[in-house]
């Protein structure tokens, strides 16, 4: 116990130091990988050291190489911060060190997972009979939901993919919006389904129902998967689910929704209309470490038909202690996995229904504040309808926009990334951290305003 105590005390001290520094430290890292390797020591030592010394070296040497993604001024990607309840619960997950794949082996985690699953279905307005799998992230959540869909549509076509594989079976068509996230394509490659067919979208990246209907009608009567989206990474917009899901189901398709961050709109009465009709789909993927702000890793895959999910993911083994209930290992790709439901339960228990809604609404409010402030800066155009948590702006030309992004990172006050949307370079702002304050937004806007002025002045002098 003394070894545990000393190591944990050092980790606790450094963790508090790190968290306390987030308010004023530069957001980008301040050291290169080469510098960090030197500080950590590249050579494996001949003799070891006490646990607390290893932990102290790790913390002290790594500090300058950490990006303050948990800062209220980080808007580079949709990653969120870590809510205190979720972080503390996640420490317990590591201390308990449970493999949570089997209910009879880890009843405490199974109880937590059952409760958290029911709460999630309730908050997101999804069918109560659905199975919930706690995956590593949205990529594996998409993989899992699409795997269940692949199994279901092939089974309906008379083909047992588990027994025969894909070779020789009926081809599965996959239709996606032209602005889907790349993780959908990755998941399809993992599943052996190849590149999908793209469907036209509108100016906010939403699938056009007429284009989907036409694509479905032209494709014949074979097995079909349709992947829709809640939360475009540039605009924040969601597909019109009422029309698109209905069209897909008329053609016998399985409908999957990639809702990595946008699905959480359903948890807010003020923003639920953005995903109206999402509950009619067959599977959904989202990330708890994004809008819900739990630690990595924490993806969620939800499937209306638990049997389809179990058929796609289930594992059999004579040594596994099973009962008649669907096991956690039957709902995710991994047999060995940490207790991912614990931090999800903790933050939901801490926030409650009203707190989750308020969190979503606060993030959206910050995004609207950003958009309004950016529009007031000369030469800046906000390109998207700011309906959720994403803002995309251009600074007049691709070259000027890229220079603003470069100088913002060098400035260190905030982190916002460059991207390309509709053929233009943009500054992309993703608001997803529970701890972001009005002051954080103001400081970040001031940095953008200052850098835009500098870039404009430099261009004028040139």
From TrEMBL:
Concerning SUPFAM superfamilies, the annotation shows:
PLP-dependent transferases (SSF53383)
N6-(pyridoxal phosphate)lysine occurs at which residues? Answer: 290
User: Coiled coil located at which positions?
Assistant: none
This entry's Enzyme Commission designation comes to 4.1.1.28
* Molecular function per GO: aromatic-L-amino-acid decarboxylase activity; pyridoxal phosphate binding
Q: What class of enzyme is it?
A: lyase
Q: Required cofactors, per record?
A: pyridoxal 5'-phosphate
The protein's UniProt keywords, in alphabetical order, are: Decarboxylase, Lyase, Pyridoxal phosphate
A Gene Ontology biological process in which this protein takes part is: carboxylic acid metabolic process
Instruction: Give the range the annotation lists for the signal sequence.
Output: none
The text of the family note is: Belongs to the group II decarboxylase family.
Please give the name of this protein: Aromatic-L-amino-acid decarboxylase
Organism per entry? Serinicoccus hydrothermalis
């Amino acid at each position: 116990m003394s070894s545990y105590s000393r190591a944990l005390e050092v980790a606790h001290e450094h963790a508090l130091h790190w968290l306390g520094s987030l308010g004023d430290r530069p957001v980008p890292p301040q050291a290169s990988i080469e510098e960090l390797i030197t500080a950590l020591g590249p050579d494996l030592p001949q003799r070891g050291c006490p646990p607390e010394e290893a932990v102290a070296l790790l913390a002290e040497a790594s500090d300058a190489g950490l990006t303050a993604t948990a800062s209220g001024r980080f808007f580079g990607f949709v990653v969120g911060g870590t809510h205190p309840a979720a972080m503390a619960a996640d420490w317990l997950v590591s201390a308990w060190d449970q493999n949570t794949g089997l209910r009879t082996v880890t009843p405490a985690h199974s109880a937590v997972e059952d409760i958290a699953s029911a709460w999630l279905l309730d908050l997101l307005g999804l069918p109560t009979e659905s199975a919930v799998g706690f995956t590593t992230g949205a990529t594996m959540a998409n993989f899992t939901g699409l795997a269940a869909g692949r199994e279901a549509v092939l089974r309906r076509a008379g083909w047992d993919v588990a027994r025969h594989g894909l070779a020789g079976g009926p081809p599965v068509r996959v239709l996606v919006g032209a602005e889907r996230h790349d993780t959908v394509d990755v998941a399809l490659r993992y599943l052996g389904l190849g590149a999908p067919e793209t469907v036209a979208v509108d100016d906010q990246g939403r699938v056009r129902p007429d284009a989907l209907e036409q694509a479905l009608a032209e494709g014949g009567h074979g097995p079909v998967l349709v992947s829709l989206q809640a939360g475009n990474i540039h605009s924040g917009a969601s597909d019109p689910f009422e029309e698109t899901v209905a069209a897909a189901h008329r053609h016998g398709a399985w409908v999957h929704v990639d809702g990595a961050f946008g699905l959480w709109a359903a948890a807010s009465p003020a923003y639920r209309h953005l995903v109206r009709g999402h509950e009619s789909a067959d599977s959904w993927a989202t990330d708890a470490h994004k809008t819900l702000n739990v630690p990595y890793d924490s993806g969620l895959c939800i499937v209306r038909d638990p049997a389809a999910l179990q058929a796609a993911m289930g594992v059999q083994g004579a040594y596994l202690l099973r009962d008649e209930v669907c096991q956690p290992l039957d709902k995710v790709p991994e047999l060995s996995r940490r207790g991912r439901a614990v931090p999800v339960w903790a933050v939901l228990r801490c926030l409650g229904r009203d707190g989750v809604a308020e969190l979503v609404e606060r993030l959206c409010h910050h995004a609207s504040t950003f958009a309004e402030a950016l529009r007031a800066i000369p030469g800046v155009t906000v390109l998207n309808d700011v309906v959720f948590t994403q803002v995309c702006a251009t600074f007049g030309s691709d070259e000027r926009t890229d220079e603003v992004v470069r100088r913002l990172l060098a400035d260190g006050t905030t982190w916002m990334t460059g991207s390309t949307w509709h053929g233009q370079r943009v500054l992309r702002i993703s608001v997803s951290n529970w701890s972001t304050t009005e002051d954080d937004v103001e400081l970040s806007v001031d940095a953008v305003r200052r850098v835009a002025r500098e870039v404009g002045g430099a261009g004028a002098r040139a």
